[in-house]
Amino acid sequence: MEHLDQLRESLPTVARDVKINLGNVLTPGTLNAAQVWGVAIACAYTTRNKPLIAALVADAKQADAGTPVLEDAQAAAILMGMNNVFYRFRHIVGNDEYSEKPARLRMQRINQPATNKADFELFCLAVSAIGNCQTCIRSHEHTVVEHGLTSDHINDAVRIAAVIQATAIALDSILPE
Question: pTM score > 0.85 for this model?
Answer without folding.
Answer: yes
